[in-house]
Amino acid sequence: MLKMNRRLVLAGISSIPFTASPALANQSFSSSADKIASLPQGKAIGRKTDGILSLKGIPFALPPVGPLRFRAPQPARSWKGLYDAREFGNAPLQANPPANLTARQYLGAEIGEDCLNLNIWAPSAPGNYPVYVWIHGGGNVMGAASQAPADGALFARHGIVCVTIGYRVGVLGFLELGGLLGEEWRGSGNNGLKDITAALQWIQDNIEAVGGDPDRVTIGGESAGGKNIISLLTASQAHGLFARAIVQSGAETIHSRETADNIALAAGLRLCENGQKPSDILTLPAQQILSLQKTVQSSFDRPFPFRAIVDGDFLPQSPIAAIRDGASADVPLLIGTNRDESILFRDRNLVGQPIAQKELANLDADIARPVFEKYKQAYPELSAEALRV
Fold it and tell me: pLDDT tens digits, residue range 124-152?
């Protein structure tokens, strides 16, 4: 089900500052499970359980809807009254969950374009705690900061403030429209990364209010989340917003601007085939955005068309090249892979069959062949079938 974040809708996008729900603002809270936190944006009510304060669905940017669709994130406004931060905000717009699950069952929240929110778990006792920021994976087309594995209570129990952040995925977060709609839209293909950067800036500005140390922020992510971190390590706008990084099963996954423009062209052609104009993408209903996204995914020669882009601005060069040149040399990086992670993506009935080139998501054939040869040299005892890619 697609719906707007109820707390922000109460305010209205145009109010400066906006006002929380009057019913909520005038309500008294006597439950020991409720706790009010004073943030620079305003007061918010969260949950206090077993010495842990949780604040959920806090907006770190304006809703990226209407005229702000495909635009870089804009700073969130303050609010009057009391903000209800006891439930998760929207997960980013994405296809329906698998296995006949509801969005809330699979993602822990409803799905909607108004998704630029974050969640905090912090020790309720005063302190100056290190901060861990989790960036979810999902191929940059799915996932959410509200999913059960992202529960930050365990970190808080061990004296760490944990923050999970939402960002736009798929067409809305990683489709480069500069070549399709004009230079005014150049850079839209990195909006997902800009969302993460905006959340990191919010953390710098606000985390002390819940006992976090802005000088000890570690960002971590898995799969697409880890790949996005590799890009953020070299993005000048993100420099200084985190002190350390952890990348799980992620490396450089990047598009050239030419490739990104071609992907957007495929989206534009599909719109024309449907009797629409390329500019109609700015106002398409959410379900039509998802249908268009499916077309883009099926037309790309690899599974993940939505990835960071060397756009000459946010990312002036490829992350690996930038790191080689010294970018983020001052940021300690822990990087590795999760054991057996690929099991998540393979049909168990097809395990014995060769892996198709398209399934090697980030490797072009010319790159894969030398890797194959290296494996043959390293493991001569294995059969060619066992090594076949």
Answer: 999 999 999 999 999 999 999 999 989 99
- Among residues 267, 189, 202, which one has the least CA distance to residue 231? 189
Q: Which residues make beta-bridge pairs with 49? A: 52
Residue 100: band (very low, low, confident or very high) from pLDDT cuts 50, 70, 90: confident
Better pLDDT: 205 or 97: 205
CB crowding 120-130: b at 16 or more within 10 Å, else e: bbbbbeeeebb
Q: What is the pTM of this model?
A: 0.84
Angle at alpha carbon of residue 257, lines to 255 and 260, rounded to 5°: 65
- Cα distances (Å, whole numbers) of residue 214 to 103, 193, 200, 241: 33, 20, 10, 8
Q: Kindly report the backbone phi and psi dihedral angles of residue 179, in degrees, each rounded to the nearest multiple of 5, phi listed first.
A: -75, -25
Arithmetic mean of pLDDT, 250-273: 93
Model pLDDT, residue 13: 27
Q: Give how far Cα 44 sits from Cα of 4, 38, 87, 104, 368, Å.
A: 19, 6, 12, 23, 51
The answer to whether 110 and 91 are in contact (CB under 8 A) is yes
Give me 39's structure tokens.
């943030």
The one-letter amino acid at 136: H
What's at 70, amino acid-wise? F
**Peptide bond preceding 285 in cis form (omega within 30 of 0):** no
Cβ(166)–Cβ(207) under 8 Å?
Answer: no
Strand pairing partners for 308?
A: 254
At residue 292, the pLDDT reads 95
Amino acid at 13: I
